[in-house]
Design a protein that fits this description.
With 189 residues, the chain is mostly helical. The chain is built from 6 helices and 2 strands, in the order H-H-H-H-E-E-H-H.
Length: 189
């Protein structure tokens, strides 16, 4: 088992005081100075205090914290952009042709058919995914106020765009959902 070298004892010499000041000036931390001089940490702290020196690292810690905060902010911004991309990809699915399939039955056979767009239940599920992705994106990077004007709702803009698209494709506004009644479209039709 290795033993640590013996620490010097006795009064601190003027040469050691000058050496503490010199090493401190080079930016060495207290523990390193104590190791170089063969003195205890407490002895080096006392000499530093007597000389008006400090081993305060607050500025270094503050700088490191600022860098870490900036890195995390950049990562949050990048992740918010990924969530926005997810929301946009999901929005494209709302009006895309959709393949529905079934496997089973008495004959245990495979059936598939393509619909011009997802059924209402699937559209609701897609909208929930969009809403969650946009909500999380906005929580990571909240929108900035535009000179005191009210912020526009991203989800409101998305819904308005979807309504315009529906009108363009169907020639009329989308029907209002009936409260408390299930969809009129069968899930597997």
């Amino acid at each position: 088992m290795a033993t640590s070298p013996k620490k010097a004892t006795g009064p601190i010499t003027d040469a050691e005081r000058r050496r503490v000041k010199q090493l401190h000036g080079k930016g060495l931390p207290r523990n390193e100075i104590a190791r170089v001089l063969g003195r205890s940490y407490g002895a080096v702290s006392k000499v530093a205090r007597d000389l008006g020196l400090t081993f305060d690292r607050a500025a270094q810690v503050q700088a490191a914290t600022a860098v870490r905060t900036a890195d995390l902010s950049a990562r949050r911004t990048a992740f918010a952009a990924r969530l926005q991309d997810i929301a946009e990809r999901e929005a494209d699915k709302l009006t895309a042709p959709t393949v529905y399939w079934d496997w089973g039955g008495k004959e245990h056979d495979y059936d598939q058919r393509e619909q011009p767009e997802p059924h209402a239940a699937d559209r609701r599920s897609i909208m929930a995914t969009i809403a969650t992705a946009v909500d999380r994106s906005l929580k990571l990077v909240p929108p900035k106020e535009d000179g005191g004007q009210e912020s526009r709702s991203v989800i409101g803009d998305l819904m308005a765009g979807l309504a315009r698209d529906y009108v363009a494709r169907h020639g009329q506004a989308p029907p209002e959902p009936d409260e408390g009644t299930p969809d009129s479209e069968p899930a597997d039709a």
